[in-house]
Amino acid sequence: MAEQASINLGLEGVYFDESMICKVDGVEGKLYYRGYPIEALAEHSNFEEVSYLLLYGKLPTKPELESFSSLLSSNREIEPQVLEYIKTMAGKSHAMHVLRTAISMEASLDKQADEATPEANLLKSSRLIAKTGSIVAAIGRLSMGAKYVEPDKSLGHAENFLHMLQGEKPEPEKAKMLDLMMVLHAEHSSNASTFSTIVTGSTLSDLYSAAVSGIGTLKGPLHGGADERALKMLYDIGKPENTESYINGILSSKERVMGFGHRVYKTYDPRARIIKKYLTKIQSDSTEEVQNLASIALAAEKMMVERLGKSHNIWPNVDFFSGPVYRHIGIPIEIFTPLFAVSRMPGWCAHMLEYWGNNRLIRPLDYYKGPLDLKYVPIEQR
Ligand code: ACO
Questions:
Q1: For the whole model, what pTM was predicted?
Q2: Which of 14, 193, 222 to mutate to test the pocket of ligand 1 (most atoms within 8 A of CB)?
Q3: Cβ–Cβ contacts within 10 Å for residue 23, how many?
Q4: What is the largest CA-CA distance in the chain?
Q5: What pLDDT digit, counting tens, does each position of 72-102 carry?
Q6: Catalytically annotated residues
Q7: Phi-psi domain of 377 (left: phi exceeds 0; alpha: psi -120 through 50; beta: other)
Q8: Angle at CA 30, nearest 5°, toward 28 and 33?
Q9: Pocket residues for ligand 1 (CB within 6 Å)?
């Protein structure tokens, strides 16, 4: 009898390497970047500092942070050919397609694209982090039919993103909130997009190719695309009193409620907890649209937690409350998932750099269960 393989569908529960970057404790609902609890980083840190922490493995000193932040801001320019492409395609195709292609184009214009030293890869990481922000802001702005706005080196990463998207210096409260969202999305161990980034890099392909794999993987509605779908669901529900019948409809047809459930968290996602706290804080000061979305989201969360929380381990994930917060900041739904890529770029790069320190080609097995030794029949006789 043939040897029986043990199969872990979706690689569930499989460790493929060790890492020093991120701990996701799916039982206790805790998340740490390089050992620091996400709650502390959300309260005290910012996106630039968290990017440094992920890439370099330690919190920066003040001069280190200043020099890293100015490295990022000096790399914000979009290459002219890439900008031309964005101008041609923005609004005509899903923003994730445009982003993926734009990053590929940046690779072909970077003379260091195939230089594989750790120093070159760190520099390329900062370029990728900086340029992805500008590219996504440009896609968002040009999709609305507005004129392109140049990056502003004097602003922080989140502030500059909003400036390029909205064409004016953002309100400090909104820039701070976007910065917080970027911190919360910056890293999450070997999720699907990070894993695909590493798979690509493990062939000793280049960092841009690895990042493009991450972007392609993030797009799916079971992963980064869920934030967009979760907000569309809130709009579909329309008003809080419709929530119960709408959610019942989804559950009775055995479909998924977007923004709930997680492969690792079998409890409340700590990022969703933080975002919910901020949403509750801003709710009464926001637009009518956001107040309504927030009320629907809170009603849906209550219902889902009662119905599926403890009994089925299905709780809100990071994507559920993000939509109303992004709408409060003034971010269009079309760029929610690309914005996730902006935030996750430091995590992807950090993992790639770490994996290259002890690279091994990733090549798992599938268990072939089809027939063997079939007799080849010439085409005329089939
Ligand atoms: N709504 C309703 N039921 C759900 C949901 C949900 N969101 N998620 C899981 N379930 C149910 C499944 O139908 C299944 O039920 P069954 O056993 O009766 O068939 C059970 O829970 C287990 O589901 P799996 O798909 O096996 O769990 P998995 O670990 O693969 O799921 C996933 C994780 C893909 C995220 C899933 O929960 C889902 O589809 N959620 C909605 C999409 C989403 O929000 N994705 C974002 C995740 S976070 C991120 O990537 C940033």
A1: 0.96
A2: 222
A3: 14
A4: 76
A5: 999 999 999 999 999 999 999 999 999 999 9
A6: 223, 262, 319
A7: beta
A8: 155
A9: 191, 222-224, 226, 256-263, 312, 314, 317-319
